Amino acid sequence: MRRLELADGTPVPVIGQGTWHLGEDPARRRQEVAALQLGIEHGMALIDTAEMYAEGGAEEVVGEAIRNRRERVFIVSKVYPHNASRAGVPQACERSLRRLGTDCIDLYLLHWRGLHPLAETVEAFERLKAQGKIRRWGVSNFDVDDMQELPAVEHCATNQVLYNPAERGIEYDLLPWCQARRMPVMAYCPLGEGGSLLRHPALLEVARRQGASPAQVALAWELRQPGLIVIPKAANAEHLRANAAAAELRLSEEELAILDDAFPPPTRKQPLNMV
Ligand SMILES: NC(=O)c1ccc[n+]([C@@H]2O[C@H](COP(=O)([O-])OP(=O)(O)OC[C@H]3O[C@@H](n4cnc5c(N)ncnc54)[C@H](OP(=O)(O)O)[C@@H]3O)[C@@H](O)[C@H]2O)c1
């Protein structure tokens, strides 16, 4: 699996695994644990989760999946904005650590901006880092103006945002802003949640030319950007194998032009979309 280096030099895989909707149904738990483990075997050893997902249920599934493999996996989790106060962050982090069955989260994000002052959240993140409970911190769903207001932004390890061929708004300003600072961007919903994006004729055409699937084309298209990490969620073993292999796909100029025609790049500022 191709890797990129975080600002502190730590290598992480460019394709990780999402966990939204995991942990919602106890009957699916064994299958979900097995899927995450298969993904790790295929090199997608970065797992993105959040205290929000199934209200802790997804973190518990991740905890089970990484037992006996903790050192091979890079764990990303997120704190709810309403818990992002000076006192709330360490309490939320303790709960996440317990559910994940680990003593340290590799990357801890503010899920989206809420009402607590950013200075309080960042102060709490820095304290957790000093205590060794998190290795680094970052944000999610932050637009350029939010990034400009973020205290100690030079310590922010990533901004996790919506990005796929049908959601290109960040290319206008946020993505270049992060790239100029060598801050990796983590693209969520890289497959458009598995919906109509994957049936779009332009993706189908490029997939046909590549002998690949539309999902692989979407991931390869996103990964053409330097400093990008994608976190597709897949429960299906075939999907997992296909997603891991997408790291090797290179789209030609002609194929990129087909996708540009179907999904034009932004020509002016667009407010950051969220899912
Ligand atoms: N920070 C935020 O605010 C935020 C918001 C949304 C999401 N996220 C994170 O980003 C992750 C990814 O986003 P997402 O889960 O919403 O959507 P997604 O990854 O864009 O799409 C997931 C869907 O695509 C299907 N799929 C996966 N691989 C496929 C393949 N190779 N071919 C065809 N279909 C495939 C999956 O089906 P199967 O499961 O059946 O394989 C699932 O239905 C989330 O799980 C979460 O960790 C973060």
Rg, rounded, reads 18 Å
The dominant shape is globular
Q: Strand share of the residues?
A: 5-15%
Order of secondary-structure elements:
EEHEHEHEHEHEHEHHEHH
Q: Please summarize the sheet with the most strands.
A: 7 strands, parallel
End-to-end CA span: 28 Å
> What is the total tally of β strands?
9
User: Would you tell me which CATH topology applies?
Assistant: TIM Barrel
Q: Order of strands side by side in the largest beta sheet?
A: 3-4-5-6-7-8-9
Structural class based on helices, strands and sheet pairing: alpha/beta
**Bound compounds, please?**
NADP nicotinamide-adenine-dinucleotide phosphate
Key features?
two-stranded antiparallel ribbon; TIM Barrel; 275 residues; binds NADP nicotinamide-adenine-dinucleotide phosphate; alpha/beta; 10 helices
